[in-house]
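Task 17 of the worksheet. Students: predict the tertiary structure of the chain below and write it out as C-alpha cells. Keep your answer in the requested format; marks are given for formatting as well as content.
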Amino acid sequence: MIRKLIYLQLATMLFACRTAYGETGCSLQDTTTIKPIRLNEVHVSGRLNPLKIAPGRLTYQVAKGSAGSSGSALELLRRMPGVSILANGKISLNGQAGIQLLVDGKTNFMDGENLINFLASMPAASLDVVELITQPDATMDANGDARFINLKRINRTAPGLSVSLSTNAEQGKYSRTFQNIAVSANTAKLAMSHTYSYGEGTELIDVNSTRYISKEGDRGGNALRLDMDAVRKRNYRNHYYNGTLDYAPNDHVKMGTYVLINNHERTKQEAVRSNFFNSSSQVDSSIATGNVLGHTFRNFSTGAHLTVQFGAGSKWENYLDRQQFNQSETQDQLLDKFGADGSETALQQKLRGETGGKVTITTVQSKYMLDIRPNMTASFGGKLTQVNMRTNSFYQQTHDNSWQERADLTNTFGHEEQLKALFMQTRFSPSDLFQIDVGLRFEAAAFKSRTVHDKDTDFTMLRSYKNLFPNLTATYAMDAEQKLSLNYHRRVNRPNFKDLSPFVEVNDPYLYEKGNSALKPEFVHTMELTWLFKNSYSLQLRYNLRQNAISKSYNLDEQRRTVVMPMNMEHASNVGLRFNAASISPLKKWNIQLNGNLNYTSFEWRTATDVHRNRRLIPSLQVQNTVSLPFKLSLELNGFWNGSTAEGQATMASLWSMNTAVRKTILQDKLTLYIYANDLFRTNRPKIIFSSDAMEGKYRELYDSRAIGINLSYRLHRGMKGNLKSDRTNERLEENSRINY
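Model answer:
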C-alpha cells in the first residue's frame, strides 16, 4: 500500500510538471549560467556568511555553507558551531549534554540510538536552515532544558522541477554507505516533494570497565573487584522516506499533508568477559557471556496543515500530526562460568527474551499571529498532545535443561499522557533602541502509568500538574553594531519514554540497565545576559537551576548486581560563560568559527547514608577552519575539546577530536565532491567515572570513529527563479508553516 502511494504521488508530480511546462517541461537540461548581480547598475560581489547570531539563537543557512555537502543530517550537525556529538551518540550543545530536536518547529520525540539513526537517515540536502536555540519563547513546547536544535526543511515556492542526488561511502575498520535522492516539483498552486535515503554498514565498539563492590562501602582490600571487557559488533540498515503535498488555491490559503516512514534494523553480536578479583591480583573466577540481539524500529508519521493569511500582518496556522513508533527486540544469551584455573564450574546457562513496544503521539495545534501596531506583534493559541505507550517483555532461562520464565525480567507497562497548553507571545518596541519580548505558557498535564510484573504485582500511578511557564527578553541597542539582551525563562524536563519503561537490558548477570516509572519531571529556571556585536559575535553569562534533576544512577540490588537507571536528584545548578564568533578572518581566504564555554556545574543527591555532591568547572572549545583555495577548492579543519564533565553521579573525563575535509565544486557548482576524515587521532573515547554508597568504578568506550569518507552530490533545478522580495516579506509569518518531518 505504501509503495502504491509513493508511485501515485510521483505520477501526479510528473503530470503537474507537464501541465505547467508542456511536453518538454520536465527535462533535466542544465541551462544555468553565471550572471553578475546588478543593483542600480552597480555590480555587487562578496562572500556570504551562512552563520548569523542573535540573542538566544544561532542560524546556519545550509545552502550557503559547505556543511550541506556532508551527506546526512547527523554529519551536518557535527559541523555546527557549539554542537559536539560523542562517539556513543550523545549530542551536546554549548558544552552541555541533552538537546531537544525539532523538525520544522515541531518536537521530535526520539531519543538515544533511535534519534541518532533518524538523523543518520535524513539527507542534509533536504534542509534549508539549522537553528540552535537557547532562549525559546512561549509558542514552543515547555519541555526541554532550553537547548533546541531546529531543522528546517527546504520549502521551494518557485515553479519548476528540482532533483538532488547524493552518495556517500565511509571506511573505518568496517565500511558504511549512505545514498539519497530528493525530487520536488512546483506549479503555481501545487508543490510536491519526495525524499528517499538508504544506509547500511557495520559499527564496532570495544568496552572495558572496572567496578569495586562492597556491602560495607569498603573499597579497599576487602572490596570485590570486577573487570569487564566486551566487543560489540553491530550491522544495521536504514530506510527513510518523506513525501509532501502542498496546495495554495490563492495567495491567502495554503494547505498540505505529509508522510514520513523511517525503518531501522540492527543485529548486534557481543562477546563479554568478566573477571572477579577478591583481595588479590589473581583472577578468582570469570564469566564468558555471548549475546546476539536483534533490533527493529519503525516510525510512521503523517499529518496535515492549514494556513490562512487574512492580511499583511494577520495569519492563522493549524496542524494535525500523528506519530507512531514500533520497536521490537530479541536477545539470545549464552553464559559460561570458570574457576581460577580456567575450568568450567557450572553448566552453561541460556537466556532468551523478547521485548516489544508501541508509542502513538497525536498533536493538534492552532496559532494566530497578528501585527497589532507597527511596533507591536502578538502570537497566541493552544495545543493538545495525547500520548499512548504500551510495552511488554518476556524472558526465559534454562534450568535443569528446561526453559523457565524469568519473572523478574518479564513485565507489561502502559503509559498515557494528556497535555493541554495555552500560550501567548508578544513583542513590543517602544523605540528604535529598545525591544521587549514577553510570553506566558499554561500547561495542564495528566499522566497514568501501570506496571504489571505478574498476576500478583499490579502497580498503577496517577500524576497531574498545572504550571505556568513565563519568558521575558529585554533587548537594548547600544549603537548600530552592539546589542545587550537579558532573558529569563522557566521550563520543564519530562522523562523520556525509554527512561519511564521498566524494561531490563541484561548485559551480563552482573550488569543491568532499566528505566524508572516513578520518575518525576524536573523544572528549570534560566537567566541569560548576552552582548551581541555585528550579529556575528556574542558573549553570554548564564545561570540555571534544575529542581528534581534527572540523571543516571549506579546502584547494587539484592543480588549485588550493578543496576543503571535514571533517578531524580535534589537539584542541579549551572553557571556559565559562552563566546561565539561566526566569522574571524586572519587572512582573506581563511574563515574561523569559534565556540567557547566555561561552565561550573553542581549536582546534589541523597542516599540512605549521606548527602552527595558532584561539582566541576567544565571548559569546552570548538574551532572550525575553512580555507578557500583556487579552482573552487576549500579545505576544512575542525576540532573540539571538552573538559572533565559532571553528569549526576558520574564524571566524564575530558576528550577531544579533530576532523578534516576537502570540498570541490564543478559544473557551475551543481556537482560537489567532498572527501573527509573523522576523528583523525581516534581520541573521541568516552570515559565515565562513577561512585555510589557501595560501589565505584570506571567505564570506557572505544568506537570505530576514525574513518575516511567520500561524498558525491549533484543538484539540478529546472524552472523559474524565486521572488526573493516576497520571500523576505513573509519570512516571519512563514517560519513554522511547514509541518513536514
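Marker's comment: The two ends are 20 Å apart (CA to CA). The CA atoms of residues 652 and 688 lie 4 Å apart.
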